[in-house]
Structure formats: structure tokens, C-alpha cells
Amino acid sequence: MGKHKTKDRLFVTRTEHEFHFGGKRQFDGEWVPTAKLPLAHCALTFQPCENPVCAPDGTVFEVLHILPYLKKYGKHPITGEPLDSGQLTTLKFHKNEQGQYYCPVLYEPFTDDTEIACIRTTGNVYSWQAINELNLKQKYFKDLLTGEPFTKNDIIVLHTRNNNLQSATKRQKPVTEKPSAHKDSENRRAFIRETPSLTCTTWSSDSSTKKESTTKSPSLPKGYCTIVTNHGNLNFELDSETAPKATRFFLLSLQRGCLNGVRLFYEAGMNCIRTAELQGLPGGEDKLTETRLKGHIDPYVEEGLAANKLLISSKYRLKKTCHFVISCEGSKGLEGNYVIFGTLVGKRETAQALVKGYVEELVIEGMKIYVDPWEDKIK
């Protein structure tokens, strides 16, 4: 008998090797990474995100880096599972006056130990404590800022102290609550009365109010493209679901080269960036617009227009003349005359240089389309 109380035989069994001699043991738990990326850092480049999005499993990426990767490989760069751009959720992080990321409901800054989650339908990021206490326990399935309904499956965990939180969330049965049947509990009423008005800065501004009569087209992924100018690039996210006609018109203009050489200049009277007038429909008629989108009405801009929105003049519907506009803070004269169909999501310094007068004009030299929501519809 030896030191480790082995039996008197000429070989070592697997159990003896595993438990007495420091051999490899069976892994009986979930894999936990040795280090985590800081909050709002891209898992593909390890750099801070300017326009963060997340995959269904909660992995955060920079939209301008993950889209080319998905277009080339079509897989999740971490897990290797199939992934497309339509599954990405645009995240809306909030910052306090000190520039720290924080929960816009509990007003608590995020730390390395804070459990963080987002709502898939809105992209708003909250602490898990806020979602658990005010949504799950109260059975109140509405976004705490916007009031938009969601289900338990729409909760995406972004950051946890341990990796068991997300799996526990997935094990819960999805429950869809009807907004009309829900009644706030006394605890939630008291919380709302005590909570001051929510004022915060976000990376993604809320979109402008749309008419109730606006109809949505069949489910389409968001489009992403880059316009190359003589003083830098402009990156846009296109809302193809709400304004499909304007999105289709814009992408056709890019693909057929109708915007090459077009000038972008600052309009001081309206406090916005706009292009010169374009004559007619770019490249001729479009059968897809005339058939599948016949009868659809894109929404006009109303009051409360946020900055960095991409718009087109309503004259494009008459197929005579039109121009594109990028809104600025405090833009005026756009209500009722323009259709909003996109957002400037990256390279905003190029637009700011034009607004501040560092450059006189921008000339469009080319384009690159990362995601065309109409690509599969044409085939």
C-alpha cells in the first residue's frame, strides 16, 4: 500500500489517477471565461463600441464591424452558430452627467458586478434588478421607458456576475401579457410616483413620432450602408420596415450611381444638411415598388424630430424631383414635407465638420451597401 492507499497491483486505475494523482477531472459545470470584456466593448475587435448591437445570446458587437463579418461568413464569431443581421438588436446605453453608463430607472451606475440586460423590442439597457423587480415580479411586460410590450423571451442578458442568470431566464416559460388586461400593482405605482422625470443621454435618439395610420410592410431587416465622400464616410442605418418605399428608392439611387458627384451642403435656414435637387426616379421604374409596396404610405415627419436622421423630400412620390436631408439638433421646417427612413449611426464627425464650417461641402464619390433588405425579395 502506497501513500495514496492504492491497491497492490501493477497499474493505476482511472479513478486513482483522477482523484489521487492530480489527473484531469470531468468538468461538471458551465464554462466561465477567465476574463470579460469591459461594458460596451466589441467582442470582435475588443474596442469600445460607437454603435453597439447584440446577438441573441447577449454578445455585444460594433455594428460596422459585425455586418461585414456576417455578410462574409454568416456565423456567430464566438460560438460559430448561424447568425444574420436581422437577429441583431441595436442597444441604447444611457449615461449620467458624469459620463458613466447607468440604469435609467434605478439611476445606479453600472460596475463589473452589475447584472445588465436589455429589451429586444426597444434596445433599452437596464440593470437586471430593475427588470426583475418591476417587470418579472410584477408581471408587467412593458418597457420601463417607452411602454412598448414585450415577452420574457425578449429579455437579453448582456453582463452577469456568473453565467447562470441567462440560462435561468431561458428556462422560464414565455408569457405574453395583454396590455389591456394588466393592472399596475401598488408597489409599482409607488415607485413611479417617487421616480423623478427620466433625463438621460443615449447613443441612439428616439425616432420621431409617426402617424397612427401608417402601415408597416412585411417583416424586413434593417439596411446598412456607407456613403463615401471627399472628406470622409457617412454610415447609415435604414428603417426598411417603417419606410420601405423611401429605403428602396435610396438604395436604388446608390446602386445605380445616381448620387455620385452629388453635393452635400449645410442649409443654415433649416439648420440641416441636404443634397442638391435630383431629377426624376433614379434609373427608371422599379417593379418591386410598383407591385409589392403598392398602396403603402411612408410616414411623414412630425414634431420632435431628433438629430442625425436621414430624410427624403416628399416630392419623390411624384417621380419628378427630390433631395435628401440629414437633420441636426434644432432642425426646422421639415414637418409634413419629408419622410424619415434612416439614421446616421457612424462617422458623425464628417457631418459635424460640414455643420461647423470646417469644410464647405461634401461630394459623394461612392458607396458600400452592407445589408440590402430587398436583396432576397428580388430573387
UniProtKB/TrEMBL annotation:
Assigned GO CC terms: nucleus
State the UniProt keywords alphabetically. Answer: Nucleus, Transferase, Ubl conjugation pathway
- So what does this thing catalyse? S-ubiquitinyl-[E2 ubiquitin-conjugating enzyme]-L-cysteine + [acceptor protein]-L-lysine = [E2 ubiquitin-conjugating enzyme]-L-cysteine + N(6)-ubiquitinyl-[acceptor protein]-L-lysine
State its location(s). Nucleus
Provide a Gene Ontology MF annotation, just one.
Answer: ubiquitin protein ligase activity
Domain U-box, residue spans: 35-108
Give the UniProt record's GO annotations in the biological process aspect.
Answer: protein ubiquitination
- Known EC number(s)? 2.3.2.27
Q: Which domain of life is it from?
A: Eukaryota
Question: Top-level EC class, please?
Answer: transferase
What's the protein here called? RING-type E3 ubiquitin transferase
Q: Which species does this protein come from?
A: Galdieria yellowstonensis
